[in-house]
């Protein structure tokens, strides 16, 4: 039997890990496959500790699905380094690491729904733009490339701009300038749920001199389609 491990960022302090555990359990409650939820930022439920638990039971094959939207530092560096360390200690194990969630086609549907749920008067259609805001990275720009590809694949009549919280394409650089070009901006936060990071985005936006109307949608908020994305990522991994 293969062990399925979902990996979230998490935090070393506070109740975020407990909240994430509840969100994921609710999302996947009707799925037939077993899984464990590990956290990059956790001692108690670290990737290493959960894999060691299975190794002690004789399991040597693992499917790893990061609950990350795009490929930034955690996906490209942190998780591979942890897995490499475990492999060094246990050379007999085999593991497969899935692609991030945001590059799956169903993510387009979720974001498209967020945009379409915003009511725009017919007369205002030509004065509206969409701004996607993802986490971003100061050093690992593959995530920015994936966001830009995602942008171009969206089926919408509105102009769409790719921005991030961190890195060279941060919304902090030019959201005020974009606001001068359009009477309304639909802001779509591309985060797992409306938590600390989304609140930070909203706080930073509130500190800017924005001249147009901002329509901030909910984030992914563990949309039911995420269940299908996670299942698909697991199915894509084979030994």
Which descriptors apply to this entry?
239 residues; alpha/beta; Rossmann fold; 2 domains; four-stranded parallel beta sheet; 8 helices
In total, how many domains does the architecture comprise?
A: 2
Q: Summarize the biggest pleated sheet.
A: 4 strands, parallel
Give the ordered list of helices and strands: EHEHEHEHEHEHEHEH
Q: What's the CATH architecture name of the largest domain? A: 3-Layer(aba) Sandwich
Overall pLDDT level? 95
Anisotropy-based shape: elongated
The span between the termini is 12 Å
In percent terms, what proportion of residues is strand?
15-25%
Structural class: alpha/beta
Q: Count every beta strand, where a strand is a DSSP E run of 2 or more residues.
A: 8
The CATH class assignment of the largest domain is Alpha Beta
Low-confidence stretches: none
- Helix count equals 8
Give the % helix: 25-40%
């Amino acid at each position: 039997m293969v062990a399925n491990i979902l990996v979230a960022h998490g935090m070393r302090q506070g109740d975020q890990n407990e909240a994430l555990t509840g969100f994921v359990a609710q999302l996947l409650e009707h799925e037939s496959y077993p899984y464990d939820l590990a956290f990059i930022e956790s001692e108690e439920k670290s990737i290493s500790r959960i894999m060691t638990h299975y190794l002690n039971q004789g399991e040597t094959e693992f499917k790893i699905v990061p609950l990350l939207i795009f490929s930034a530092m955690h996906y490209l560096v942190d998780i591979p380094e942890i897995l490499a360390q475990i492999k060094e200690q246990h050379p007999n194990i085999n593991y497969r690491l899935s692609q991030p969630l945001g590059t799956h086609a169903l993510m387009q549907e979720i974001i498209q729904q967020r945009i379409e749920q915003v009511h725009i008067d017919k007369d205002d259609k030509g004065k509206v733009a969409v701004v996607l805001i993802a986490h971003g990275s100061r050093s690992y720009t593959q995530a920015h490339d994936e966001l830009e590809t995602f942008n171009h694949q969206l089926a919408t009549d509105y102009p769409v701009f790719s921005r991030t919280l961190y890195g060279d394409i941060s919304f902090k650089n030019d959201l005020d300038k974009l606001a001068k070009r359009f009477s309304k901006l639909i802001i779509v936060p591309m985060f797992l749920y409306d938590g600390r990071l989304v609140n930070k985005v909203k706080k930073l936006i509130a500190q800017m001199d924005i001249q147009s109307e901002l329509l901030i949608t909910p984030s992914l908020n563990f949309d039911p389609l995420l269940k299908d994305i996670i299942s698909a990522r697991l199915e894509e991994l084979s030994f």
